[in-house]
Amino acid sequence: MRREAGPHRPSRLSRFILWWLKMGLLVCLALCGAFGWFVYDALRPAPDNMPHTDGIVALTGGQGRVDTSLRLLMQNRGDKLLISGVDPQATQQDLLPPHLPDSVKDRVTLGYLARSTIENASETAAWVVDNHIHTLTVVTAGYHMRRALVELRRTLPGVTLYPYPVIPPALEHPFERSTQHLLLREFAKWLGALAGFVHPPAGVAG
């Protein structure tokens, strides 16, 4: 008598393809979840109860960052301020409002060496050492904050960092295509920073 054929078992190749499809789906779901958190974090406003810190650093490259850092300095939220990534042609007169008291201007340092987030971190580290900074408020755009903190923590392992995000005009319309492209680009750069990828600096930091 002929034996009846048992249930069909998938081949080894089929099982291998199915396993990779499952892994791909899990990775996609994880990336979508991470991007959702990244967008939520980028849109969060700055906290109201920021502590006083030894220093403030503003990472140039977008609207509102310098103005916000100067406001924090005038409110005595920090003892000193570094504006990192200043255009080589810009002077203190170009960057600071004319009504700013000399006592406040004397607490501001302009950093001209940085042209990328990695170089912002290096420039900040040198200033921190020179000024004996142990606590630092970081001012940059909300979408840039996560990547900036990754790079700063690598160069400032003994310094406590307090993020103070700025919400630029671009993030006021988060569902516009240009804003989504910006957020996706920054999300990819953040993942690259987490992985330790180093890219040659191109243009101004941001």
Outline the structure in words.
With 206 residues, the chain is an alpha/beta fold. Helix content is 48%, strand content 16%. It contains seven helices and five strands. It has helices spanning 12-43, 65-74, 92-95, 102-105, 117-131, 142-155, 177-195; strands at residues 53-59, 78-84, 108-111, 135-141, 160-166. It has a five-stranded parallel sheet with strand order 3-2-1-4-5, with helices on both faces. Strand 4 (135-141), helix 6 and strand 5 form a beta-alpha-beta unit. The radius of gyration is 23 Å and the shape is elongated. The model is unreliable at 199-206 (pLDDT under 50).
Q: How would you summarize this macromolecular structure in one to three sentences?
A:
This protein is an alpha/beta fold and 206 residues long. The chain has helices at residues 12-43, 65-74, 92-95, 102-105, 117-131, 142-155, 177-195; strands spanning 53-59, 78-84, 108-111, 135-141, 160-166.
